[in-house]
Amino acid sequence: MNGLILTLLLSSSITESSAFRLSERAPSFDVLGQSSKRQSAGFESDTNGTEFLWTIEDTYDSSNFFDQFTFFDQGDPTHGQVNFLNQTAAFANGLAYVASDNTIVMKGDNTTWLASGAIRDSVRVQSIKAYNTSLIILDLNSAPWGCGVWPAFWTCGPDWPEYGEIDILEGVHDNEHNQITWHTSPGCNLTPSSNYTGTLSGNLDCDTAVDDNSGCAIIDWSRASYGNYFNSQGGGVYAMKWDDQGISVWSFYRSAVPVDITSGGSPDPSGWGLPAAQLSPTGCDPLKFFMNQSIIFDITFCGDWAGNSYATTTCPGTCANQIMDPANFVNASWSINSLKVYSKHVITGTTNGARHSLDGALGPTHFALAMLCIVAFALTV
Fold first, then answer.
1. Which of 44, 91, 208, 266 has the most other CB atoms within 10 Å of its CB?
2. Where is the GH16 domain (predicted)?
3. How far apart are CA 131 and CA 165, in angstroms?
């Protein structure tokens, strides 16, 4: 049987139609053989019937992260009490490094006492590469939090806000919930829906010119989404899916991360349950309002959001006074295992009037892996 399978995989005579006749007999398996709740051919399917896989495009980890991200060292656009360091200074001051366990660490200064009115050193980095539609999966052990702290993991296009901004993970102070927000040019609106588990917050209009650029936001009230409790559970995973079907965000505790993420195969967001937040194409064209998105991590302090909301928290004193004591920022740190970006590869279907097939959409390696699962099962039944 092994010889027959190998012959089939190497043979150029396997046509699209014969491959999918075989696949009709197989259960739902992804390209690495894990069982999943996919369509009959083993792939995800868009509402128009187009079948596809999410395949890895880029992996950022301890081996390459700081080579693929640039350090922003200008004034904070959100008016935080922060001094963003360049790469040389960030490494020299221990605010950016790869730890002995191969985690990527970026942090705010937690050793220096400051005079009243001084600003605290921190880090903001942006990916060199930009993306147009993607599935972004961040695996981290901890995210920054604490009184006066305002971290974010987000994407942004050039010529802001013309090409949009997606705030995947953002919180302030000692909150225990994430706020997912979109900021756009005029014409994009958040649609109230039962297709996500979070709660609408404020405006439905995502236009940056509305309400002092508050954007359109959804709050994820799960304690899996932000803060001390998330970190105490060993962190977890945040995922953002952006395609023509909209923009969705999920978060998972370490113990609840889907197996198709941890296995290293092709992730299947359709099996993850409802997202915490979703921007539907009903009210906002995700391909028109979001383009050329770079990935950004930052940690700022006080500023437009954290500074203005400080009085509504249980944090002591004022935000300006909080900045002075370095002990207040021992938790203002990112600890990242990996950041992966997947792209959508059409298997078969009609998009923009063109017919796509498995062998035309995937490279030889992906095609062989996909066919191995399909053919192997077909020959055993």
1. 266
2. 50-314
3. 12
Residues 366 and 31: their CA atoms lie apart, in Å, by 8
Query: Going by C-beta distance under 8 Å and a sequence separation of 6 or more, which residues neighbour residue 104?
Result: 61, 62, 65, 66, 98, 334, 335, 336, 337
Q: Which residue has the tokens 């004193």?
A: 317
CATH architecture of the domain covering 63-346: Sandwich (2.60)
Angle subtended at Cα 168 by Cα 165 and Cα 171, rounded to the nearest 5 degrees: 110
Would you say 24 and 374 are in contact if contact means Cβ atoms under 8 Å apart? no
172, 228 Cβ separation under 8 angstroms: no
Decide: 284 and 45 in contact? Cβ < 8 Å: no
3-state secondary structure of 21: helix
Neighbours of 204 (CB within 10 A): 14
Amino acid at 325: D
User: What average pLDDT does the chain have?
Assistant: 85
Can you give the pTM of this predicted structure?
Answer: 0.82
- In 10 A of CB 14, how many CB atoms? 18
Q: Look up residue 99 and give its two tokens.
A: 């730890």
* Residues 219-236, mean pLDDT to the nearest whole number: 93
* Residue in 276, 307, 105, 260 with CA at minimum distance from that of residue 178: 276
pLDDT exceeds 50 at position 36: no
The torsion angles phi and psi of 77, rounded to 5 degrees, stand at -60, -20
117-154 pLDDT, tens digit per residue, is 999 999 999 999 999 999 999 999 999 999 999 999 99
Q: Which residues of 319-342 are buried (b: 16+ CB within 10 A; e: fewer)?
A: bbebbbebebbebbbbbbbbbbbb
Q: If 0-12 CB within 10 Å is exposed, 13-18 middle and 19+ buried, where does residue 133 land?
A: middle
| Residue 165 is among the residues annotated as catalytic for this protein | yes
Catalytic entry in 16, 44, 57, 170: 170
Per the structure block, which two tokens stand in for 260?
Answer: 């198709």
Mean pLDDT value across residues 222-240 = 93
What's the CA gap between 35 and 57, in Å, rounded? 23
* Cα–Cα dist 341/186, whole Å: 28
Confidence of residue 350 (pLDDT cuts 50, 70, 90): low
Which one of the listed residues 24, 44, 51, 165 is annotated catalytic? 165
CA distance 275 to 239: 9
